[in-house]
Write a structure and sequence with these properties.
This protein has 2 helices and 4 strands. The protein has 163 residues and is an alpha+beta fold. Pfam families: SecB (PF02556).
């Protein structure tokens, strides 16, 4: 009798496969519209972080690109100090997962692997702009993925799966 993987991921645990192939920066953007005047003001920043993920299958059949986008707008008072965006991407080989496990892997697990790289790239970008590093707190992508599934279910939509 074939046992199912403990997370219900594969029909046959022997067939499930996950491998990170490559991590890369897809896009970087930084703007300090009020420089150099902003450097002479009292530094009382407010930070707005927007986080987004997207994924798509690649030509190789079992290969997927996952892109994690971190967009940050930092203001001091009403003035925009800087706007920074990083698109951190990865190519993953994923085989043998059922639709639910594939959705979770692409929507939560892969972005979790990309986040530390995106955070480092974003901090490096901000520091090069002569601002203090942001040091973003870790993000629980499992919770975000569950919230998105609940939102889609409440709206009567089926989650889109990448095939």
């Amino acid at each position: 009798m074939t046992e199912q993987a403990s997370n219900g991921a594969a029909q046959d645990g022997q067939n499930a496969q996950f491998s990170l192939q490559r991590i890369y920066v897809r896009d970087l953007s930084f703007e300090a519209p009020k420089a150099p005047e902003i450097f002479r003001q009292d530094w009382k920043p407010s930070v707005q972080l927007d986080l987004n993920t997207k994924q798509k299958p690649l030509n190789g059949g079992d290969f997927y690109e996952v892109v994690l986008t971190l967009s940050v707008t930092v203001k001091t008072g009403e003035e925009v100090a800087f706007i920074a965006e990083v698109q951190q991407a990865g190519i993953f080989l994923i085989k043998g997962l059922d639709a639910d496990a594939m959705g979770h892997t692409l929507g939560a697990f892969c972005p979790s692997l990309l986040f530390p790289y995106a955070r480092e790239a974003l901090d490096n970008l901000v520091v090069r702009g002569s601002f203090p590093a942001l040091m973003l707190a870790p993000v629980n992508f499992d919770v975000l993925y569950a919230q998105e599934l609940a939102r889609l279910q409440a709206e009567g939509q089926a989650p889109t799966t990448v095939q």
